[in-house]
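User: My instructor asked us to take a sequence, write out its structure as tokens, and then describe one feature of it. I'm not sure where to start. Here is the sequence I was given:
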Amino acid sequence: MTGGGPPIRSLAETGEVLHRPHALEDVALSEVPVLATDLTSAADLALDHREVLGSRLRSVRAVTVGVLAGPVAPALAELADAHDIVVGRAGPGSSLVETSDPEGAVELVAGAVAAHPQASVAAAQLLRFRAYEQVPLGLVLESLTYSMLQSGPEFARGLRERGPMEVPTDRTPPVAVTSEGTTLALTLDRPQRANAFTAAMRDLLVEALRTAAADPTIEGVIIRGAGRSFCSGGDLAEFGSAPDPATGHAVRLARSPAWWLHELARDVRVHLHGACVGAGIELPAFAGTVLAAPDTTVRLPEVGMGLVPGAGGTVSIPRRIGPHRAAYLAVTGVTIDAQQALAWGLVDRIEREPAAPTDP
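Assistant: Let's start with the prediction itself. The structure tokens for your sequence are:
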């Protein structure tokens, strides 16, 4: 038992829980739908039992967390993979979340799930079924899930707590478009709002990326952010402003920078610096090359707002760092720095010199 978190069960105990009548419903309806399992001492579990347990883990409507004291035993690799998040003392090159305090990591996950159970489980389920392996499918399922949660109580509570907000009018276009030889240079240009992502910014990005795709003289695209941060995520003043979830879903798919970045990925280079929050990392992760200044920090805040990442993050991020780490970032909302992002493969290189002026 962790200090204030859920029990960390043995595999045998988790198997017993999930084989009870109505087990899937009972776990899903628990106050904190988290199922944590110690994966270190059951390599001798019979193959047929491992297969059944793996199927149950993928079916349960809860966030499942596997805990390891060392590298994954080959006999348990598939069972570990069936968990949404796996934490522990993993070896180099692992897709797991490395930590010297697995119990603390389980407690952190449980606290986040307790605060926003619907959004947490939805994010875990999106990643669990690997829809990100097919980008068009992944983007559709992410948007559908995002739209569903917009009608839910957790998002409504967040809007009430936020209170009414008004989006300030931009005096200049929120994306500056210039040419650097045969390269199209795009600069997110709302430094007074830390380049918070708006519908207008989205539309200008789509327009510029479509131009790059259609013009054979454009050989590459560079994306930067003006000011102290690359992008602080969606502008909170626009949250909840869509006329209805169905219309929001249709617009997200019709005007999708994520899709165009995926299409152009090989020729796109993104320079990150400062805060890269929500869309500020979800969109760059589609690029073929992602460079980060030493001061770069990354965070996915959407679950804490009662939503899931909605700019393509449940597709782009697991394609770079795997589903376990992506689920951990999404559910907990933790911040990681440039070195951690590099170690996980979320960025490709840390650049020592800024790619562009960052005056406020």
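For the description part of your assignment, you could build on this observation: DSSP finds 15 helices and 14 strands in the chain. Try explaining in your own words what that tells you about the chain.
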